Amino acid sequence: MITLDLASTTFLLVAVCGVLCAIQLCYVFGIYNRIHRHFKKKNEAAGTELPPLSVIIVTKDSGSALTKNLPAILEQDYPEFEVIVINDKSAGEDENILKLLSDKYNNLYHTFIPETARYVSQKKLGIAMGIRASRYEWLVVTEPYCCPVSRNWLRRLAEQMTPNTDIVLGYSNYLPQKGWFARRITTDSFFHSLRYLGMALAGNPYMGIGRNLAYRKSLYEKHKGFADHLQLQRGEDDLFINAVANKYNTRVASGEDSIVRMPVPPYKRIWFEEKMNAMVTGHYYQGMARFINAIDTWTCGLFHLATISALAFSIIEQQWIGMGLIVLFWLIRFISTMTVFHHTSRDLNENLCCIFPLFDILRPLWSLVRQMQYLLRKKKDFLRK
């Protein structure tokens, strides 16, 4: 009786592993592999015209970042563009730096958020002010800590600005840096990009990141800006794109030149707060994206648990055929996942292959921990200030 129970348990676990493996492969080849396929076509530009652009940046106490990164944006190899910087009541030397740079660059304009501005997210207000001051239809949003890797960054974005396109999504990540924390958050950002860019390429865009993002001014005005989520501190990028993007109006920039990078945060709590804010806005997503992402995370975790359990039962019961099937499922998923991650990381100039296996195992656990931490936070922590 015990033998029968163990044998049936082993069979059940093998079947579960097979189903979970099939689900994971759908994500690997249906979503995560799309960036690699898209980048292979990088020479096939979607558009031939280069529309004039307005680049919008909101800064707060980031003087050194402006000194380093703003010239790289102002000196882009692009026929016609302006850069609008909104100063959010900086206590540092941001205003002095902006004045010096504006004397050198004719296409730089800057203003500030009034001290009396209240009852709205300062980041959203800053972007709204920049959009109102902009002269052109196409807007490019980035941050003072971000630096394009190439002088052709704006060109790569503009290549996707076809007459039927309203939104262009771009890839961003941290600068290479030694240490476990730096490699972990870089891998996390890379994987997050595989998700939202891959979903956009699959015809289901659900978010964007305001470090490397472009959209039409008319789209912003038609949607009445950020009016539907003013109660939140953030959401000026992902919630806005979630509300206005569809498979017909959204494209993804391709090529190494389309990438922007930023330094690793000096303190872990900065990155932690970013993840918490992303979790908050994620609860407001329309559509199925939130559930699709959750299914991927939990089927990944369950696959690892089921694999370990099935191996243990098959060894105890000496079910060698079952053990062989388990090993086969694990190898198929592992090789498929690592191959896609390797090719895509090479396309995006990331050196993360050594950490992929560990990240793949730990990401469901990290997700669970963040969910628990989110539940312990007060809701007012994420409301506008």
Automatic annotation (TrEMBL):
Residues 54-222 form the Glycosyltransferase 2-like domain. InterPro entries: Glyco_trans_2-like (IPR001173), Glycosyltransf_2 (IPR050834), Nucleotide-diphossugar_trans (IPR029044). The chain crosses the membrane at residues 6-32, 295-315, 321-341. Keywords: Membrane, Transferase, Transmembrane, Transmembrane helix. One of its GO terms (molecular function) is transferase activity. PANTHER family: GLYCOSYLTRANSFERASE, GLYCOSYLTRANSFERASE 2-LIKE DOMAIN-CONTAINING PROTEIN. This is Glycosyltransferase. It comes from Phocaeicola coprocola. The lineage of its organism: Bacteria, Pseudomonadati, Bacteroidota, Bacteroidia, Bacteroidales.
